[in-house]
Amino acid sequence: MKEMKKYIIGLAVILSLPLYGSVQEDVSAERGQTESEREKQFKYYWYAARNAQDNSRLDQALVLYQFCEMINPEDAKTKETIGLLYYEAEQLDKAEKYFRQAYMLDPGYCWRAYYAYMSYRWDEDATKIPYKLEILEKAAEANSQDAKLWEELASQYLSIGDWEHSFAAMDSMEAINGQDARCALTRARIYIYQNKYKKALQALDDYLKVNADEEDLLVMKSYLETYLKVSWMQRKHTYERVLALNPNNSNILNNYAYDMAERNENIEQAEQMAFKAVMIDGENPIILDTYAWILYKQGKKIMAQVYIQKALDQTPKYMPEHRKTIEKHYKKIMK
Questions:
Q1: What is the pLDDT of residues 181-199, one digit of tens each?
Q2: Where are the alpha helices (DSSP H) in the chain?
Q3: Which of 45, 84, 142, 264 would give a disulfide with 67, using CB separation of 3.0 to 4.6 Å?
Q4: Taking Cα atoms as reference points, which of 64, 40, 43, 66 lies closest to residue 52?
Q5: What is the percent of the chain with per-residue pLDDT over 70, rounded to a whole number?
Q6: pLDDT of res. 23
Q7: What domains sit in the chain, N to C, each tagged with a CATH number?
Q8: Long-range interactions of 158-166: CB distance < 8 A, separation 24+
Q9: Around Cβ 84, how many Cβ atoms within 10 Å?
């Protein structure tokens, strides 16, 4: 404390300005100081503090920001900045105190630092999610036009399975920023979790009508179309759209090749695509199985046996459905 007071005195001399003791003593009115004069002093100290901070003179910046705090104790931005400086100095209790004060003064603007700090402090403690939501919800009441806030709310609602509020938060986010690919993907995943596969496909299609070149959404669309057994022409179209964006998408190459082979359609092209998938991801048992199956269909039995054996050897036990298919192919190929 003595060192801090000594530094304050030295700083005042350097700046050739008096300490703003009148505020601390609450006698500014007695001296006839007007609000405009207070504002000028606040701005002076603020910009001096900002300059010190930008030049990595953090101790000096902290003192200057504290002058600003004395001049205007209700300025949330000042308190938040002091909190950040304490955080950098690893004085975490003081940092939390100032983050909270800033948040309480202006939750709509100062939620990020407080929320980020408390999230860091609580880490992965699921019991703290209601408190995180409380911080975010209060901020949203104060500032409904912060898209990042709604995004974080949607994420927290998702973490507790509150689909309804998560959808509402994503709607608010998109009302500010326009359609968002992550929201479309998240909506689809929620619908899949709820076994509402047609709704999941519709959520993807709604986004892709406006933004056609989103590889992740198209990949998920292709999976859903396979599951829902939509027309082969539609599925081909989706495969082609993905490969136009990324010719090296091994999963789509694999699925497209397998579907063609099952229909005995363009079997040579199917082999080429399956081989390309193997070259990209040769440790994937599903891809190895597809290539082996296509080779077998072409009468290339010896090569097929090599790849189906490798596929079976690399299929983990936690993939029972895939292992069942691979074992079925294995029996036929090894006859």
A1: 999 999 999 999 999 999 9
A2: 2-15, 21-24, 35-54, 58-71, 76-88, 92-105, 107-122, 129-142, 147-159, 163-177, 181-193, 197-208, 215-228, 232-245, 250-262, 267-280, 285-297, 301-313, 320-333
A3: 45
A4: 64
A5: 89
A6: 36
A7: 271-335 (1.25.40.10)
A8: 158/186, 158/190, 159/126, 159/129, 160/129, 163/190, 163/194, 166/190
A9: 20
